[in-house]
Specification:
Structural class: alpha+beta
Bound molecules: dihydroflavine-adenine dinucleotide
Number of strands: 21
Distance between the termini: 22 Å
Strand content: 15-25%
Number of helices: 13
């Protein structure tokens, strides 16, 4: 070995990426007595964990099921999710007396800032004797005979096993890169084309001009694209639409297709209008609608309807049933064509990634290249919003760390 090779440097495992999946994998392998090194190119460990969940990290979801994940192979995630459940992670959280709360059904958030999760992982890593080096620029990765060799500008690190936990493209300011995908290609592994997911929609200039007055308004709504639907809030923004329901549907949305939104779910608006017409015929249409919907939205939508019919706000007595149905449908069946998404700049995750056909679902090891593992977001498994992506990171990291071969 040359001097440039780290003297004590044959590690059992090198993990590339000190995010959720990489740290969990390193801790699990370290606890089994393997000599582990984690390398990351950023100046701070776990940047995404720190910013997640609005700063309070939605670290898991108690209702995690395979149906909460999207992948070319929907069965792939099952084994890992079964071997490391939300309750396993919760046990760790409770070991550190970290306070948490359930925000929506099953979604667990920290009560204190998300840094507490990073601190917990670092403590676990230290106890498992895992070495972590940050600000390491990976220049090349090679497999020479049975040894992986990782070159940085000033050092070469070697290991029997290599784990790629470098995540996807989402939010490049956190250090996200396509490194894992490039590395997979280098080893001749197939990549499912990637795109931004859990991401706000943008509007085209005309639509944006029309919707501009609603910017900042949030509405509880039912958003659907084909068979996929979510009922959560929708937020009008100065660029288009956001909010949890929009982020959720963005994962299933193919560009160029319309989505449909019911801004008044669980209310038969047409029936309410007919009833109001019968009981209070002198009341204005807008007066009834603002009982169920934001005032600004009602004004804007009705302005469109009145212009179309060359009429103006009128009392219910002078509205035909057909007109009332059209008015109700404007809010109940609003069809909208997003211009696109805000892209990786703000996307919470990357859809697609290393083809699961290339990996063992039990161990995350490459079927083609022995000793090479992929865990976390870099793999073609994308969770819905609500703590599922971290659960995938923990579970896939654990699967690799647990099953990788120990020293002979
Ligand atoms: P992750 O991206 O976390 O880590 C990858 C690591 O690899 C990084 O440390 C990076 O620096 C490093 N790396 C990348 N390229 C490299 C290179 N070339 N050389 C060396 N190192 C490299 N999920 C959830 O379940 N609950 C939540 O509350 C949230 N909230 C949330 C908010 C925001 C704003 C975002 C962007 C994302 C979320 N997520 C989330 C998603 C969640 O953060 C994500 O799924 C996991 O962090 C993925 O974990 P990984 O370890 O796979 O990648």
């Amino acid at each position: 070995m040359t001097e440039n090779h780290c003297a004590e440097s044959l590690f059992d495992v090198i993990v590339l990426g000190a995010g959720a999946a990489g740290l969990m994998c390193a801790i699990t392998a370290g606890q089994r007595g393997l000599k582990v090194l984690v390398l990351d190119h950023t100046d701070k460990i776990g940047k995404k964990i720190r910013m997640s969940g609005g700063g309070y990290c939605n670290f898991t979801n108690l209702n995690t099921e395979p149906k909460n994940f999207i992948s070319q192979n929907p069965h792939f995630c099952k084994s890992a999710l079964k071997s490391y459940t939300p309750f396993d992670f919760l046990k760790l959280i409770e070991k550190y007396n970290i306070a948490y709360r359930e925000k929506a059904a099953g979604q667990l958030f920290c009560v204190e800032k998300a840094k507490i999760i990073v601190d917990m992982l670092l403590q676990e890593a230290q106890e498992a004797q895992v070495k972590i080096q940050i600000q390491k620029i990976i220049q090349s990765v090679e497999k020479i005979q049975d040894i992986f060799s990782i070159k940085t500008p000033d050092q070469t690190f070697t290991a029997r096993l290599l784990v790629v936990a470098t995540g996807g493209y989402s939010v490049p300011t956190t250090g996200a890169t396509g490194f894992g995908f490039e590395l997979a290609r280098q080893f001749d592994l197939n990549i499912i084309p990637t795109r931004a997911a859990l991401v706000p929609f943008t509007a085209d200039p005309d639509s944006l001009e029309q919707l501009q007055p609603l910017s900042g308004i949030g509405v509880e709504a039912h958003v659907c694209y084909e068979k996929y639907y979510f009922e959560e809030s929708v937020l009008f923004t100065h660029r288009g639409l956001s909010g949890p329901a929009i982020l959720q549907i963005s994962t299933y949305w193919p560009p160029g297709k319309k989505i449909e939104i019911d801004f008044c779910p669980h209310v038969d608006l047409y029936e309410k209008l007919i009833l109001a017409k019968k009981e209070s015929p002198t009341v204005f249409l807008s007066t009834v609608l603002i009982y169920f919907l934001p005032k600004k939205m009602v004004s804007l939508w009705l302005e469109y309807l009145f212009t179309k019919h060359k009429t103006e706000n009128k009392n219910l007595a002078s509205c035909s049933h057909t007109f009332l149905l059209e008015a109700a449908n404007l809010f109940k069946k609003w069809k909208w064509l997003p211009a696109g998404t805000e892209g990786y700049r703000t996307a919470e995750v990357t859809w697609g990634g290393v083809d699961t056909n290339e990996l063992s679902s039990k161990t995350m090891e490459s079927k083609k290249v022995s000793g090479l593992y992929f865990v976390g977001e870099v793999v073609d498994v994308t969770g819905q919003l609500g703590g599922f992506n971290f659960q995938w990171a923990w579970a896939s990291g654990y699967a690799a760390g647990k099953h990788m071969p120990s020293r002979k």
